[in-house]
């Protein structure tokens, strides 16, 4: 099966200050006069305007953050890989908002050609513009993290920059029936318990039995380290999907259950399906296997989180649903959930990207962070549900008014990136 391969660049997000401090509710101007120089295996990013102490200046390297000192005009990124070309996204961030990004591409020379002054690239691209060419994978281990665990390696499909991936020739066909606009299926909790929560447990969390209600030939058998008070999607009284996601520290194993419920009077749980994922590995489920998600994918990797959005950058793809799918799937999905053989319907695993031409200048805050992620990492179709519903965690740190901006984005603003061969049932 032909796959969408990881892009060939490491995306580095540099948050650089403008000369004039931004008001709390204003969007800072995009940084200017930004340059990046490669010497050996180190890239130095420099800007001419001094950092104002009222702005938070930091450089995010595929999920890891380095802060610049007040007044600094440079940041250094060391121990990169010789022979690779890196893409840097440079933004200025105020207390609440970030500017549009400028892109720089820097080549780190091989050992035989790394002498001298290195390669220098000026930040001359306009905010929101794209840089031609394909990138390289991000550095292993530098992907998103939760509680000290990577959310899969940096070169995992969920963490892949697809901003330059080719458009799939079936894009118009697969998207033609997907009416409606984006919809955040998560929020602060003010208007209901929306979103898919997760629970972090310590390495020594006791293991408990799991009784699977569906045929268990595709389940990863228990026991699982699920505490009695693990958070359930929709709450304890929910009649919905009742997903339970548990990340165990130390082992960095992710345990996910569907239609889960604790057994009264005992430490065990019941569930329809269960799957385990080693967050340090790119291993997929066996072909044809489901998981707690219809597409056989991990759920946690695709959730929008308020802490990421508030930091100004979401460095991974998001999970979304559509109403009707075909009896087929594409990489990285492993399972379908449909009886329809209509090839015009989207397959599970289909990855869409917000078009580079979509104007995000009228958006701000958390919504803008999500839209920037949808241009860089896109979203992966993981389940049947309402069209264009994006998944995220419930969190009081979400601003529901802010997230409502996403409802102005039409489905026609998206395109399907190269999906490869559809595996059909």
Describe this structure as you would to a colleague.
The chain is mainly beta and 425 residues long. It has 2 domains: 11-136, Immunoglobulin-like (Sandwich), CATH 2.60.40; 140-425, no CATH class. It has helices spanning 171-175, 306-311, 365-376, 400-403; strands at residues 11-15, 35-39, 42-46, 58-61, 64-67, 74-77, 85-91, 102-107, 119-122, 145-146, 149-150, 183-184, 199-201, 210-212, 244-248, 253-258, 261-262, 269-271, 273-278, 318-322, 328-329, 351-354, 379-384, 389-390, 414-416, 423-424. It has a 6-stranded mixed sheet. The chain has a 5-stranded mixed sheet with strand order 5-4-1-7-8, with no helix packed on it. A hairpin with a 4-residue loop joins strand 15 (244-248) and strand 16. Mean pLDDT is 81; it is low at 1-22, 50-56, 111-118 and 122-141.
Show the helix and strand layout.
Layout: E1 11-15, E2 35-39, E3 42-46, E4 58-61, E5 64-67, E6 74-77, E7 85-91, E8 102-107, E9 119-122, E10 145-146, E11 149-150, H1 171-175, E12 183-184, E13 199-201, E14 210-212, E15 244-248, E16 253-258, E17 261-262, E18 269-271, E19 273-278, H2 306-311, E20 318-322, E21 328-329, E22 351-354, H3 365-376, E23 379-384, E24 389-390, H4 400-403, E25 414-416, E26 423-424
Parallel strand pairs: 1-7, 12-24, 13-15, 14-18, 20-23
Antiparallel strand pairs: 1-4, 2-3, 2-9, 3-6, 4-5, 7-8, 10-11, 15-16, 16-19, 17-18, 20-24, 21-26, 22-23, 22-25
């Amino acid at each position: 099966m032909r796959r969408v391969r990881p892009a060939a660049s490491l995306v580095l997000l540099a948050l650089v200050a403008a000369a004039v401090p931004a008001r709390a509710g204003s969007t800072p101007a995009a940084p200017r006069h930004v340059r990046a120089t490669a010497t050996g295996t180190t890239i130095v990013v420099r800007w001419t305007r001094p950092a104002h102490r009222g702005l938070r200046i930091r450089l995010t390297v595929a999920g890891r953050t380095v802060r610049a000192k007040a007044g600094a005009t440079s940041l250094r990124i060391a121990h990169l890989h010789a022979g690779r070309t890196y893409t840097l996204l440079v933004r200025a961030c105020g207390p609440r908002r970030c500017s549009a990004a400028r892109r720089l591409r820097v080549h780190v020379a091989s050992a035989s050609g790394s002498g001298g002054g290195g390669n220098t690239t000026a930040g001359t691209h306009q905010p929101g513009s794209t840089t031609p060419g394909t990138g390289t994978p991000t550095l292993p281990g530098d992907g998103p993290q939760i509680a000290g665990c990577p959310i899969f390696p940096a070169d995992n499909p969920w963490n892949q920059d697809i901003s330059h991936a080719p458009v799939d020739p079936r894009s118009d066909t697969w998207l033609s029936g997907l009416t409606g606009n984006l919809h955040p299926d998560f929020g602060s909790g003010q208007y209901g318990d929306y979103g898919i929560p997760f629970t972090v447990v310590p390495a020594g969390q006791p293991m408990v039995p799991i009784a699977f209600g569906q045929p268990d030939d595709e389940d990863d058998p228990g026991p699982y380290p699920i505490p009695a008070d693990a958070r359930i999607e929709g709450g304890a009284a929910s009649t919905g999907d009742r997903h339970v996601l548990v990340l165990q520290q130390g082992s960095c194993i992710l345990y996910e259950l569907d239609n889960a419920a604790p057994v009264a009077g005992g430490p065990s749980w019941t569930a329809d399906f269960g799957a385990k994922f080693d967050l340090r590995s790119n291993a997929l489920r066996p072909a044809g296997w489901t998981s707690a998600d219809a597409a056989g994918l991990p759920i946690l990797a695709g959730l929008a989180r308020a802490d990421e959005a508030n930091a100004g950058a979401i460095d991974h793809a998001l999970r979304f649903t559509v109403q009707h799918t075909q009896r087929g799937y594409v990489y990285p999905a492993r399972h379908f959930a449909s009886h329809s053989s209509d090839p015009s319907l989207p397959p599970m695993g289909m990855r869409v990207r917000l078009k580079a031409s979509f104007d995000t200048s009228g958006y701000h805050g958390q919504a803008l962070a999500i839209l920037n992620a949808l241009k860089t990492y896109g979203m992966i179709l993981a389940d049947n549900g309402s069209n264009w519903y994006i998944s995220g965690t419930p969190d009081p740190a979400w601003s529901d008014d802010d997230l409502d901006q996403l409802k102005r984005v039409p489905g026609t603003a998206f395109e399907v990136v190269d999906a490869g061969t559809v595996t059909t049932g």
